Amino acid sequence: MISSTTFMAFAATCFIIETTPGPNMGYLAILSLSNGRRAGFAATIGIALGLLIVGLAAAMGVAALISGSPFLYQFLRWGGVVYMLYLAWEGWRGEKETSASSTENKTDSVFFKRGLIVNLLNPKAAVFYVAILPSFVMINAPILTQTLILTVIFVTIATFIHASVVILAGSLRPYLENPRYNMMARRILSVLLALVALWFAYDTAW
C-alpha cells in the first residue's frame, strides 16, 4: 500500500518537523525537568493520543474544515495559547501538582490530560494532516487506508522523539532536588513555557 520510497520520504519529513522546537517539545522538556520522567511520559501518551485523534479527524475531513475556517482555526489557536499560559502561571504559583516533591503522590492522568488538551488545541497538527500528509498519498490506491497508515507512522515517529526529549530532560532533574533550586528552576521553566505559548501564537498566526 505504501512504497518504501514514500515511507522513507514521509518518515524523513516527519522527523524534521518534529525535531523543530515547538509547543510539544517545549512543554515536555519543561514538565520532565520540573516533575520527572514519569510525568513526562504520561504527557507523551496524551500527546500521542491527541495526534492520533486529529489524524482520524483529518481522514474524515474535519481537519480540512478547521483549516478552511478562520473562526475555528483561531478558536483552537488561542485556546492552546491560553491553556499553556495557564500552565505557566500555575507552575509559577507553585501548585502542589507541579511541585517535584509531590509528583509521586499525584495521578498520572493529570499530565496525560494536559498533553492531550495541548495537542487537541494545536491547529498546526490539523494543518499538517491537510497540507503535508496528502502529498504522500497515491491516487491509484485506497486513500483512506493510506491516510490511516501515514497517520500511524507520524504518531510513532513523533512519540519516539517526544520520549527522547523526556529522557534527556528528566536526567537533569536530580540536580533540582534542593527546595531552593527547585523553586528557582520551576519559575524559570514557567517563564519559558509562557514564552513557548507566545511563540506558538506568533508561529500559528495567519
Determine the structural class based on helices, strands and strand pairing.
Answer: mainly alpha
Number of strands: 0
What value does the Rg take, in angstroms?
Answer: 18 Å
- The SSE order reads HHHHHHHHH
Task: State the major sheet.
Answer: none
Overall morphology? globular
List the uncertain runs.
95-105
Secondary structure: helix percent:
over 70%
Summarize model confidence as the mean pLDDT: 78
Q: What is the number of helical segments per DSSP (H or I, 4+ residues)?
A: 9
Question: How far is it from the N-terminal to the C-terminal residue, by CA?
Answer: 35 Å
- What amount of the residues lies in strands? under 5%
Task: Please give a structural write-up.
The protein has 206 residues and is mostly helical. The chain is 76% helix and 0% strand. The protein has nine helices and no strands. Helix 1 (4-19) packs across helix 8 (143-170), helix 3 packs parallel to helix 6 (109-120) and helix 4 (62-68) packs across helix 5. It is globular. Residues 95-105 have low confidence and may be disordered.
